[in-house]
Design a protein that fits this description.
By secondary structure, this protein is an all-alpha fold. Helix content is about 50%, strand content about 0%.
Length: about 100
């Protein structure tokens, strides 16, 4: 019986598909393309915070109608129901509803 291949220090698979092992020097490999960022593209970064804040405000304010009105309506119903329930369960609420005569 032959010793297993796991004791070998090479990665399994075809040779030169990747560098021989993690941390080994990288050799020129066929079919692998590297991309870098142009120095002209990096100049767009200094104002990204300001642009992000103003663009965020513009987009959210355009959509505010679609979430502020339903949220306000839902909160109004919730607040009314909570007040109504507190009144119904109070002594004054029992007297007002006529259920206190039992």
């Amino acid at each position: 019986m032959r010793p297993s291949i796991a004791r070998a220090s090479e990665m399994p698979g075809p040779k030169r598909a990747w560098s021989s092992w993690w941390g080994a020097p990288i050799i020129k490999q066929k079919g692998i393309v590297e991309y870098t960022l142009s120095p002209y593209q990096t100049k767009a970064a200094p104002h990204w915070v300001r642009n992000y804040v103003f663009n965020f405000y513009r987009r959210v304010s355009a959509e505010a109608v679609y979430f502020v009105i339903p949220f306000g309506l839902g909160y109004g119903i919730y607040a009314w129901a909570k007040r109504h329930d507190a009144h119904q369960n109070s002594k004054a609420g029992h007297i007002a509803s006529g259920a206190a005569h039992h």
